[in-house]
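Aggregate trends can hide what the representation actually does to any particular protein. This step matters because it turns folding into a mapping between discrete strings. For completeness, the protein is quoted in full, as a sequence line and a line of structure tokens:
=====
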Amino acid sequence: MRARFAAFLAGVAGLLGATSAGASTVTEPVKVWIAAEPDAAGGSLFVGYASADSALTLRYELVGEKRGSGGRSSVSQGGRVAVAPGLAARLSQVSFGRLGESDHYSIHLRVYDGEDLVAETALDK
């Protein structure tokens, strides 16, 4: 039964662009996503979000890296968040200045219940 439930969670997460791994005490699916938005200065803002079907307290890591002709930039943020049932919780944000044509970036969001990874997603360009 537990294996079937884990497969169900992985399927739901896959539909949302996330993956689920490891055994967890979370019994409801946790959904995560990264929204890319322009910022007021003309750069790029990447915001991590999570939602769940029940109230949970989770831990997250949001890591961003930009590489280009101007060099390399890396940002890592993390913390704890209380997620209310059915509502999107804004976790954190990573901002880069203007992205040039030759610039590449990767943004990774991982969410944990205790030490167990319950959802993750990434954006790469």
